[in-house]
Amino acid sequence: MATQSVYPVGTPGTPWSDAEKAQWRARQHKQRSYVEDVLDKIDLLRGRFDVREYGRLDYAEDGAYALFAIGSRGWNDDLPAALVSGGVHGYETSGVHGALQFVDRHLAAYVGRINVLVAPCVSPWAYERIHRWNPFAIDPNRSFRADSPAAESAALMDLIAPLRSRFVLHIDLHETTDSDESEFRPALAARDGKPFEPDAIPDGFYLCADSANPQPEFQQAVIAAVAKVTHIAPADAKGEIIGSPVVAPGVIEYAYRQLGLCAGITGARCTTTTEVYPDSPRATPEQCNAAQAAAVCAALDFVLAR
């Protein structure tokens, strides 16, 4: 795959200042509608589920964005809780629409068995611009920590704070796309003043487990369910996926808390980050959404059986 050798913002080898970040932001343009694609779908769910606004992002000339979560109707404090998050990286489309598909088609089956809270689009500004970062060139999925520099991350952490001890599951829905290699990784290297090192994009679905709490049986239950919907990414020639060793079919590990990843915020026993490959010639957008929803159902079924 051809990649850019020099990113069009900044000077190679020099980290961006506020001026370069402003130049980068000026290049980002709205390409789709958060209101039409997400909020209108959430409105259709209000008759069946609890919907709450948990924050608001005000991005000046780009407008304000209300953040919403969808929860089980009749929340029961005697039951455990599960968190489903999507759209932490706004450009990862099936993370958003897979979460909404899960709510629409499957959430009702879990009412009275486990409390489920779904935040389908954590980063709406990035969703509209099909980008990984927020307007300040900050990656929300490296910002889930105290005093977070990303308002998107801080809002979700505030939402779940009162419930943190109740969560037994958190599944965070993501994608790995061809644009990771053509745009987002080169932009990251340019922002940080580092050389861009090309890598391969895996063809297929995989999971990123928490290296501090890998829960291999849980990860394999999710992989087995998704394999019925779409193909699982194989390891590359080095036995890796995106530079990380494959520890089991379709599974790699990251240090969630150390990296500030979303899936590390609840302290739940079972946590995972999904990665769908929407650019594969072997997968359709419908399959990608269905794979995300299948992953959520499998994760819930696993914790309910334990």
What does this molecule look like?
This protein is an alpha/beta fold. The chain has one domain: Aminopeptidase, CATH 3.40.630.10. It contains 9 helices and 10 strands. The protein has helices at residues 18-26, 34-45, 93-105, 124-129, 151-160, 178-192, 216-226, 256-259, 285-304; strands at 50-58, 64-71, 81-86, 115-119, 167-175, 206-210, 240-241, 244-245, 251-254, 270-276. The strands form 2 sheets. The chain has an 8-stranded mixed sheet, sandwiched between helices. A hairpin with a 5-residue loop joins β1 (50-58) and β2 (64-71). α2 (34-45) runs parallel beside α3 (93-105), α3 (93-105) crosses α9 (285-304) and α7 (216-226) runs antiparallel to α9. It is globular. It starts with 17 loop residues before the first helix and ends with a helix. The relative contact order is 0.17.
The biggest sheet amounts to:
8 strands, mixed
Overall, the morphology is globular
User: What's the total count of β strands?
Assistant: 10
The amount of beta strand, in percent, is: 15-25%
CATH homology-level superfamily = Zn peptidases
CATH topology: Aminopeptidase
How many structural units, i.e. domains?
1
C-alpha Rg (nearest Å): 18 Å
Order of helices and strands: HHEEEHEHHEHEHEEEHEH
Quickly name the level 1 CATH class.
Answer: Alpha Beta
How many helices? The count is: 9
